[in-house]
């Protein structure tokens, strides 16, 4: 125990020494000054599973209380994050309080909850904002109080640490899978998420760049589906009629992938076209199980919740945690699904560190 | 108020007595809800002393500010014997308009005037239809609720409007000295509304419309005109609430406001507004909004999930109205 402590301290001071000016300033006070740079382009990255290897064991601290404000608990994706939060709290011996808005479309209620939670003076907060701006007043308040914030999953805010997927990588992983399974190359298409959404922009970019790496793959259509299953269904029918040689379609999320799969099935092309989605929602996993969807790329929400709490415990214990804990993009297929998910499509625990 | 109710009352000595009893009751009503508010705060404080922290108290008032503005808005209409179910979506429509104006870099006066004009037009639409058609306000504003919601989606293209310059957020949702701006705005609305109701002809006429429409007509009050005015005020105040909301969220979501309608009407009624018209209190409406915000904050403190909070708040609203009724009987 003592040994781990010393090594982690050594590492901490090594990092601090590198950041020379900041280190000088910081050495004057014992109270940790938390940074809020997780949304900056130059945010330092670390893969979630590497946390323990790089920083050593998470420090033990008595009586730590963490407040968690999620988007909504009506969706299995967010329930997955909540499960991860609770599991980490149990493993690390801290107390968590989870609150969420009634729906993912209620920015005001989420702000109300967040601001009230601040009044309860938790030691640190996990926030998953409905939008990039709706929690701004709460985030500012926490910043002025020097309270560490972990920003989990989607909308990125100026937090101490961001725990979420590299959306660009999601697109790349999908492109690589296509290249691997289409050795003779061919035409591919993409159904894009909501224009302007950061997740969509990055996934589109990642997929396009991924396809460009493989000379024999050609992106013949990239059309908007606005995260919507029906729009994806219609778009797929249109592009498949125009380009009957398409061999693979990547949808920026699973709701659209389900729509794509339905269109492919209705046109009698099941199994002839590779369909890949993103997120790992049950409907898509169901599609993978029965063969209408080929694969989905998911950051495994359970671990985002877990690492959110873990990174806050580390920060409160005085460790330096990189700005961005990357939740790896896992490609889920029929073959490896049971490795990651149980029968109820819940993410399995202990995949990375146990 | 006195003049009108005296006119309503039966002639002779009983008139003075009834006047004073009614007046006592209306005072009692505000006292009742103030007592309920204080008790709620005390109960939550007894459970968790942190509840009484200055941050939390200010936060509760802050959370109540937009509901309070809407509760006062709807009070103007309820007093005339009407109802405005469209204030929530009028807020959404004005919010989207103000969001677009802000994000396209228009200066503050243009944003404020444009947003208020949107609200006023929405209210003028309600008021005109109600006055000209004679259809009940409930049905007309039910229809316009849907119309305004649709317009908000059309104007915004169904998308949340982002890119609100931080200056607007700071101005509308920042602080004036130590006090959050939304609280100041709600307070100003309270003062102005109370003055209008108590000290102007307009206030007197609005009460007259709700208390005894025929008497008001015979007394030469332009019933149609003043009815329409009430709806214009209501929607314009919704536009004020819209600017505050957009400032706070840093974005304008066309789906805003749907969840504000019920608390606003509940706050108004808990605060003493009579759905039959003729009675209502701006201060009461504000305290009603504070009571709802206190409950929300308290339940969050007790770690009650949002789903259960909705049930709890509904129960409290019914209880409050029940006790009002018992008091009256």
Number of strands of chain A: 13
Unreliable stretches of chain B, pLDDT < 50, 5 or more residues? 1-17
- What is the H level of CATH, i.e. the homologous superfamily of the largest domain in chain A? Response regulator
**CATH structural architecture of the largest domain in chain A:** 3-Layer(aba) Sandwich
Q: What is the oligomer described by this structure?
A: heterodimer
Total of helices of chain A: 13
List the total number of helices of chain B.
14
Keywords, separated by commas or semicolons:
heterodimer; A: 354 residues; alpha/beta; Rossmann fold; 2 domains; 7-stranded parallel sheet; 6-stranded mixed sheet; 13 helices; 13 strands; disordered N terminus; B: 329 residues; mainly alpha; ABC transporter involved in vitamin B12 uptake, BtuC; 14 helices; 2 strands; Substrate-binding domain-containing protein (chain A); SBP_2_dom (chain A)
What layout of secondary structure does this protein have?
The complex is a heterodimer of chains A (354) and B (329).
Chain A: H1 2-18, H2 20-26, E1 45-47, H3 51-55, E2 65-72, H4 76-92, E3 95-101, H5 107-119, E4 124-127, H6 136-144, E5 149-152, E6 161-165, H7 167-181, E7 186-192, H8 198-213, E8 217-224, H9 229-242, E9 246-251, H10 254-266, E10 274-278, H11 282-289, E11 295-298, H12 301-316, E12 324-327, E13 330-333, H13 337-340
Chain B: H1 2-8, H2 13-47, H3 54-79, H4 87-103, H5 108-133, H6 137-156, H7 166-173, E1 175-176, E2 179-180, H8 181-199, H9 201-211, H10 213-218, H11 223-249, H12 261-270, H13 282-301, H14 306-328
Antiparallel strand pairs in B: 1-2
